[in-house]
Protein 1
Amino acid sequence: MSEHRAIDYLNEMQKAAAEALYFVGGMDEAAFAEDNLTFKAVAFCHFTIGAAASRLLVAHPEFATEHPTLPWTKICGTGNRILEDVFALDPSDIWDATYRTLPELLVEIDAIRHWHAEGE
């Protein structure tokens, strides 16, 4: 199996973030809390983002230093917290994390892609 490039991990993070926002599109927090399927799907998206970020930093440890605008420790930690507390996840926490962090994450990933496309 070939080693993943940093962009492959960023793609996974971007895909999971976009999916989470798509899944909650048109919902309010109360509807989200009542919809167990969407709640679990969005929680899994957050887990996927954390796992991809963790693997990116293991495979490419310099990446965090090159791109300090992303809160790498927090992103990786979210995946770990979801895994550790899977039976005690609070829909309100996942809702807040989705709307508070994922739009910004998508902007940052896009900026990183642009930075690399420019050859810097």
Protein 2
Amino acid sequence: MPVIRSNLKEVMKQYDPKLSIRKLAKDVDYHFDSIRRMYKDEMVQYPRDLLLKLCIYFNIQPAQLIVMEDDGYRDCAIDESDGYQGESNERKTTRN
């Protein structure tokens, strides 16, 4: 199943391998902890103002900061050829 991930760590390495999270936070005037969470891919939601500041700072598009990847997990599809019949959505009614 695909997942959304932060690519900030890679963007920072390409931009300047010596750039620290603390310096980036100071340069874009944003909370250190928010930058750190994005760097470590621990963010649940990405604030638009942060994305904008980072895009301007690195001169990139948002798609370079946030990427979709396959996490390797596969949904288990039920194969009816293995004998599994499943439950029918139809109701059987009996009349007396």
Protein 3
Amino acid sequence: MTARDMAVTGLGLVTPAGVGVEESWTGICAGSGLAARDEVLAGLPVDFSCWVPDFDAAALLGPRLTWRIDRFTQLAMVAARQAVADAALDPESWDATRVAVVLGVAAAGGDTWADAYRHLAEGRVNAISPLTLPRSLPNMVAGEVSMDLRATGPCLTTSTACASGATALGIARDLLRSGSCDIAIAGGTDCARVPMGSAAFHRLGALSQRRDDPAAASRPFDVDRDGFVLSEGAGIVVLERPEHARARGARIRGYLAGYGASADGFHATSPRPDGDGARRAVEAALADAGAEPADVHHVNAHGTSTPQGDRIEANLLGALFRSGTPPVTSVKGTIGHTLGAAGAVEAAVTVLSLERQLVPPTANLNQLDEGLDIDVVTKAPRAHRMTGALSNAFGFGGQNAVLFFRAA
């Protein structure tokens, strides 16, 4: 590690692979697609998604709190509580003014807005809940988590589309480096598996149309990929200044060493064909960490399963690692695309990969698309010696965020 690296001391995951870090890791390592027909999306052209199984928010958070917050906030709050417990931190005893909350979100309160619009269309204005705005505004996820954990330091929400969670981690790291806080609860959350989300992404041509076999629909880097699968979830990482973590005897699971961000400046939904924006974000993350491509032993790819996006990312990686790429994976084959949560969920999985020296497989990759010169792990997890890894996140608007982690 270097003096600029920030310690990862806690992880929290709520994903379609399971509620909890171990449950999610086990499900992701199983290497099977989890998409299925979704009754929430019944009757739509794309009527399948990935969702968190057996997520009983009332049991986990209590009915009073559950009623007050939208599902995207429920997911984040459960993951945040997990991460804080994993870090062996006690909100009753920490210096709350030195604890930051930085969370990323893209779609935010879809369920809440759908209910409000339905009442409005029916002419029942007085039926619209007075909690509509507090439940649905993007900033409220960070606000609610800060209230729940009694954290009164910097409290921010990032929104860089599918890069939101990774952006949040990068900004949290910067806050720690600046001395603004000692602890940062950072990550991302989203729940876009709502009718409007599915219909809108379908009209964009972004979703897989594989209605006859939803479980095989998300297939990053495969020759037959045809779009991504909507999902939901949350990923939370507790970051600390290393001296703070050591002083309290914390277990350090890894280090966030580098963060790079860039804009394509090209198109609202399509990435630059030459991958220049993504390349600059990768190079910035490595430079920030004082690392070289040779220090990257694994890449957790953005890999959404879209024809254009996967090719651009694969070409970027092939050019970066001229002598052959390190093992690459995309967890979206298993859990779909969690949008604003993706960068944080995948960052947590990257930390676990470094910790366990194991690269999860990419589900549904049966035949690598022609011309993609990358080493994608498939079928089963691969044991691999590694001390550094990249986690890529690219979003609509050409917003790119890349994180570089070191093993503890």
